[in-house]
Amino acid sequence: MNRDGSQNNAPTTLYHLNPQKIKEIAHIMTKRNKIIYWISTIWLASGMLSTGTLQLFKMKAEGAVAPPGVYGIAHLGYPIYFLTILGVWKILGVVAVLIPKFPLLKEWAYAGFFFAMSGALFSHIAVGDPVNEIFASVLLLILTVVSWYFRPADRKIISVNQYSHGQEFGPPKTATEKHGNHGAVGA
Questions:
Q1: CA of residue 75 relative to chain centroid, distance
Q2: CA–CA gap between residue 81 and residue 17 (Å, rounded)
Q3: What is the DSSP letter of 155?
Q4: Hey, how many other C-beta atoms are within 10 angstroms of the C-beta on 109?
Q5: pLDDT value at residue 174
Q6: What is this structure's pTM?
Q7: Cα–Cα distance measured from residue 45 to residue 184, given in angstroms and rounded to the nearest whole number
Q8: N or C: lower Cβ tally within 10 Å for the chain?
Q9: Distance CA 30, CA 151 (A)
Q10: In whole angstroms, what is the distance from residue 102 CA to residue 25 CA?
């Protein structure tokens, strides 16, 4: 309804909403993002912890489509000791992602998960494995990206100053302001 009493059929945009309505929408989106974060993170942690444990102890995964154990790693052409390294990294990565604080450590854990799962994906493709054997790697890779993207602000690295990338604090300076006026030769 417009101020003069006539109907307005135009779609509502954020510009037309009052501040209280905008806060409600932001709260709903924040709550939705937290739910997405925790669901994807719990699934990611479960997958990484279970495969990491199997790899660390070189156990057999009965009924697994793409076994993460000795047979799986040998099939991909990697040495068996690589299982121990992957297992330890995955378990430590799960701990880093789940504990509060330590945002830089979390970034490293997410990067490690991304590299491990994208490496597994491409390794399976390189040896010609069927899609059903690649699925676990793709799922864990997607969960890694979703968990990383939706993580709450207190689990992110926050830049202290947006201008502090290799220069003094404050707004960016022009070349003349940084280095003096070198164009005035002989002046």
A1: 29
A2: 60
A3: G
A4: 23
A5: 59
A6: 0.72
A7: 62
A8: C
A9: 11
A10: 30
